[in-house]
Amino acid sequence: MTPENRRMQKPHLVWVYPEPAQERLDAATWLVTTQELRNSGWDVTLVSRSRTDNGQQTFRDTDIYFIGQPDVYLFSTVLFHIKVIIFLLKAWSSIDIIMFHQMSAPWIFPLKLLRLLSGKRKPLLLMDTRTVPMDMSTLKWWLRGSFELLMNRIANIWVDGQTAITEPMAKAVKIPPEKLFGVWPSGVQVKRFAMAQEKREWPQPDEAIKIIYIGSMHNRRNLMALCHAVEKANNAGLKFEMVLVGDGWERPDLENYAAQTAGRIQVLPPVPHTEIPQLLGQAHIGALPFPDEEQFRVSSPIKLFEYMAAGLPILATHIECHTSVLGNEEFVFWAYGSLMEDLCMALEAIWHARVELGMLGAESARSADQWSWSTSAQKLNAALTALLVKNGIGVLPAVLATRQTDLVSKEA
Prior knowledge:
Blueprint: H1 3-8, E1 12-20, H2 28-39, E2 43-50, E3 55-59, E4 62-68, H3 75-90, E5 97-100, H4 105-108, H5 110-118, E6 124-129, H6 139-158, E7 161-164, H7 167-172, E8 180-183, H8 190-199, E9 209-214, H9 223-235, E10 240-245, H10 251-258, E11 265-268, H11 276-281, E12 285-288, H12 294-297, H13 302-309, E13 314-317, H14 320-326, E14 332-335, H15 340-352, H16 357-368, H17 373-390, H18 398-411
Parallel strand pairs: 1-2, 1-5, 2-4, 5-6, 6-7, 7-8, 9-10, 9-12, 10-11, 12-13, 13-14
Antiparallel strand pairs: 3-4
């Protein structure tokens, strides 16, 4: 096979995601990015765990190879990865890159030894880091967090390359510069969320401003402080209502508190991703009250971009993951701390700007265009391509190969 024909083939990426994709609020990270990579000339096999499906299935317009597993703590993870290894070995000769995350690392790492013993240059191993341990207060989560950090340290030595969700994340897990091939943040399907703007009715001067939070309800996310701030603002004569949507350890406490607010605060269970734009269309402000802690500071919160695409002004704490996106934008109301008093000051600023919320929401929507999943996937595409080139793998994405051919023709 000639090098020219080789370059025009689609490089084969196998992406291992060990969580049930159908149940994740952040599933767009894997689903939409897979679609975008396929559009860019990659042959992507997305492998995910499922409680029900088995084999090739289509979920949210994306073809996924599901491995059905019962939900049994630890056992299901082990069995899933045994089946993943069998799957990888069967497709071994066709794979150019295997991309995985920390939880899959101990099963994927030995494959490099197999590759070295076989004298082959591929498949290359690339680990993608999108989170650091969120909570190590219990033995279970301490063990998980310690495991993830250990996998990052081993990956720094053992894998062929790495990617991360943000530059601060890469620094936090100490990825060596020579191993870091790119960062690709979270994003949003702009058109899917733009429909929320059509349904929204902005509040009249004497009507309540509706705040929404969608996401995890773990206690470190500062949601109870936000609830107290909303109630304090109402007691001071301002009018706010708030809806919290999601699940997590703090949800029972939030529900108990909400029950005492005469309906001003509501706590709702998680909803399918397809219903989120409708919920955002009923709100006026998107809330991100996270404290200034490393696990939030180094992240790239999907909900920020979804709020923006839905045309919502933002209430956010002044931490790096928010400031790196929002900067000096006028549609954000900053809380310069995560205490109730800091959040109250942001709520007061929102109340005084209530007649401008519609205009600020339009600015938010315009800013979302630069944070699409398409843009993020282009950065991952560049990282994967750079990994192939550095390791002398002659297969490049078809789109890139076509561009190279066009450049050669123009120069001739």
